[in-house]
Amino acid sequence: MQSQRQKTPLSSVSQKTIGRLSLYRRLLHDLLLENKKNVYSHQLAILAGGTAAQVRRDMMALGYTGSPSKGYDVEKLIESIGIFLDTPEGQKAALVGVGNLGRAILAFFSGRRPKLSIAAAFDSDTNKTGRLIHGCPCFPIHDLKKIISERGIELGIIAVPAGDAQSVADLMIEAGIRGILNFAPVPLHVSHKVHVEYIDMTMALEKVAYFARQGL
To answer: Residue 100: which of 202, 209, 183 has the closest Cα?
Structure first.
């Protein structure tokens, strides 16, 4: 097995490929917990809900090859995906909105990814600021630009009501944020230099409800 530290040019990697690689890494960590040392492309494909051919194409983006007799070495493949997806120094995110959803996000990400962490949270409620919430320091929203600059934060997570999402996004972008994960059910108006991913739980649940009624 071999892995290359030279990454495929970003312009040639699709968003779907990045998403699948992230999924593979999570599944591979699960296999490690089961003491699985090796996995074949067709086995990983079944777990990921894809095809063996797709898995092999995605591994080509990593410059990683498996053995016909043993498949992929699980630990080395996790390392190879990490080299591809992560930066050596890691990246930090800021969360705005420490309500029930924000707290759940903080709890979920706490210690999950050493190279990707939520370094600061922000809220307008003074009862939430000035303390740690799930191990993350919470600051007043008016300190956002200063804290983002001081801590080298590059990513933003929006977990505020829809009516506040655009103003929060504007504040993040002014502070230098260039990637936003938006949980608010509203589209954001940002420049083409800012990458936004949307998590619309209401829409997802309505899709589930619709197809459940169809008996699919």
So the answer is: 183
CA–CA gap between residue 77 and residue 47 (Å, rounded): 15
Cα-based distances in Å from 81 to 7, 21, 61, 74, 163? 10, 7, 10, 11, 37
Q: Which pLDDT score, from 0 to 100, does residue 129 have?
A: 96
Which residue segments constitute the domains of the chain, with CATH numbers given?
Answer: 10-83 (1.10.10.10), 91-203 (3.40.50.720)
Measured in degrees and rounded to the nearest 5, phi and psi for residue 73 equal -75, 120
Can you say how many angstroms the Cα of residue 18 is from the centroid of all Cα atoms in its chain? Answer: 10
119-136 pLDDT, tens digit per residue, is 999 999 999 999 999 999
For β-strands 179-182 and 155-158, DSSP reports them as parallel
Residues 6 or more apart from 17 whose CB is under 8 A from it?
58, 61
Give the pLDDT confidence of 151-168 residue by residue, as tens digits: 999 999 999 999 999 999
| Tokens 């490929």 sit on residue | 17
Q: Give the helix, strand, coil percentages of the chain, each rounded to 5.
A: 45, 20, 35
Q: What whole-number distance in Å separates Cα of residue 178 and Cα of residue 154?
A: 6
| Contact indicator for 105, 134 with CB cutoff of 8 Å | no
Residue linked to tokens 């590059």: 154
Provide φ and ψ at 21, rounded to 5°.
-60, -40
Beta bridge partners of 91: 116
How many other C-beta atoms are found inside a 10 Å radius of the C-beta of residue 147?
A: 18
Q: Kindly report the pTM of this predicted structure.
A: 0.80
